[in-house]
Design a protein that fits this description.
Shape: globular
Number of helices: 2
Number of domains: 1
Bound molecules: zinc ion
Length: 230
């Protein structure tokens, strides 16, 4: 797997006027499911700049993490080009038979309230724990009792959180890399979105052990997404 950067950040929210928005909505032409016409759900967006998350070559001021569970997009790889003016869905699983308006939970919101957050650098120790968890075969991600880093802090790292850059906790550590559907080069993993949304108890997925991984190809201005559950 190719990662955007060695340095990773967790999200701290709510913090006014931060570089990250959790939830919210992207109002741009094309930011809709081709199957339902409904707006894509935004789980996060982050300001792309040298003092926040740096993505060399990314032309928009922000990079947006979009998705849909209420159509078949969640059943396959999902890719879209994001420019400052428009979103163009380029790869998706068509149809609505594998989903519905109450998936992943009853009364699923059409969008989530925007919560501003900031980026908190992940320490070397935290990153080492995450790398260890990614290597461990424990099915429930419980931290190895013999492991020297087995602390309450390590337990807090054992489920997916919002992370930009670095190596996130991977619910499926053998997840295949993602190649850009246009230039065919391997994309860079830049974000993991977890369940917590700071606004409702069920969160984004109704399950703390679900994550959406996001890759980008700055050469093509393309974002790709795939979900994983344990
Ligand atoms: Zn590309």
């Amino acid at each position: 797997m190719k990662f955007l950067s060695q340095r990773g950040y967790f999200v701290k929210a709510p913090v006014p006027n931060g570089p990250v928005t959790i939830g919210g909505r992207l109002v741009l032409p094309g930011a809709a499911s081709p199957s339902t016409g409904l707006p894509l759900v935004q789980y996060a967006s982050v300001r792309v700049s040298s003092d926040a998350l740096s993505i060399p070559g990314w032309l928009s001021q922000e990079i947006h993490c979009l998705y849909s569970w209420t159509c078949n997009i969640h059943l396959g790889d999902f890719s879209y080009r994001q420019t400052p003016e428009t979103v163009t869905v380029l790869e998706y699983q068509a149809g609505i038979d594998g989903a519905g308006p109450d998936f992943p939970y009853e009364g699923y919101p059409k969008s989530f309230r925007a919560v501003s957050g900031t980026l908190e650098a992940i320490s070397e120790r935290e990153q080492a724990i995450i790398l260890h968890l990614n290597k461990s075969a424990a099915p429930d991600f419980a931290v190895d009792p013999d492991y020297a880093m087995n602390t309450p802090e390590a337990n807090d790292l054992s489920y997916p959180r919002h992370q930009f850059g670095g190596v996130p906790l991977l619910l499926q550590s053998d997840a295949p890399p993602k190649d850009c559907i246009e230039c065919r080069r391997e994309m860079q993993l830049f974000a993991s979105v977890g369940n917590g949304n700071y606004t409702n108890d069920l969160g984004f997925f109704g399950n703390d052990f679900v994550q959406i991984l996001y890759w980008c190809c700055p050469a093509c201005q393309i974002v790709s997404a795939r979900n994983y559950c344990d």
